[in-house]
Amino acid sequence: MQTRQLGKNGPVVSAIGIGLNRESGKSSSERESISNQTKETLDHAIESGLNYIDTGDFYGMGLQEMNIGQTIKGRRDKVFLSVKTGTLRAPNGHILGLDCRPQAIKNFCSHSLTRLGVDEIDLYQPARIDPNVPIEETVGAIKDLINEGKVKYLGLSEANAEQLRRAHAIHTVTALEIEYSLATRFIENEILPTARKLGVGIVPYSINYYGLLTGNVKPPFPQGDFKNMLPRFQGENFESNRKLVEWLELFAAQKGKSASQIALAWLLSKGNDIVPVVGMNRPERVSQNIEAMNIVFTSEELAELEAVFSHDAIKGTRYPEALLGWVAS
């Protein structure tokens, strides 16, 4: 397994991470099926040497943390646990908002430790920056948890350059989890240079932008599907974006790979300080993503990829207007 150092002074982890963001299912049988599939996939990942596990205390309303805890029992030393927190959800799964007050952060952490069955979380981070709480207070709470031995490293998620600098002034930020892909390259303007100046590792998520770059996802989507809200999947935007993805599929075929493998390999080529988190819900997906780690591009191929998927090539904002305030820009 290829490894990378997470941040200038952080731990060495697998070059890619496994993202576990599955809903809990509505019935007990659905929950059991999802749990079994998660455990099987995670077990295969760990045995393959992939040790970076990314989750959130609100994923599956805590179910995913319980699944992880059961799967890593007896092999805690083989995994690196990254947990996001601060997102509030109703029993029906709807997002209620954020709560990153110090007392809330510490409360959420205690529950995560219990569900995971561990004494310490490796990387702990607010899932989003709470506009109602100064970032210094949120980071201060995690700093307390680090001093208490409940958390090892501080992370952030979807923070902009200014927020990253403010947080880093309170305590060393080891990693920034943020959307970054061939489809979404805005961080290259200011956030990525700032992170590198501070020695903060980058953990990209949504590397296929909700399936867009795989070539396997297209409208119409089922009622309730989150992609129905995303401008990039709508009308003329999607028709324009689909042509780019078709080009990517042809590019991938020429290398004997899939479009999603090329998208992952491109991210890995952007620097050794980048550790992408990939959503995986089947054991075969683990093997496919590990295989992508060995893809090598020529300088000409990289130039072609970046020209076709330039910063403004993908049409449509990454989220609707109502949600843009939740993410960095």
From TrEMBL:
A UniProt-annotated Pfam family: Aldo_ket_red
Keyword terms of this UniProt record: Oxidoreductase
GO cellular component: cytoplasm
Comp. bias (Basic and acidic residues): 23-33
Region of interest (Disordered), ranges: 19-38
Molecular function terms, GO-annotated: oxidoreductase activity
Gene3D superfamilies per record: NADP-dependent oxidoreductase domain (3.20.20.100)
Domain NADP-dependent oxidoreductase: 16-308
Keyword Oxidoreductase: yes
Protein's name in the database: Aldo/keto reductase
Source organism per UniProt: Flavobacterium akiainvivens
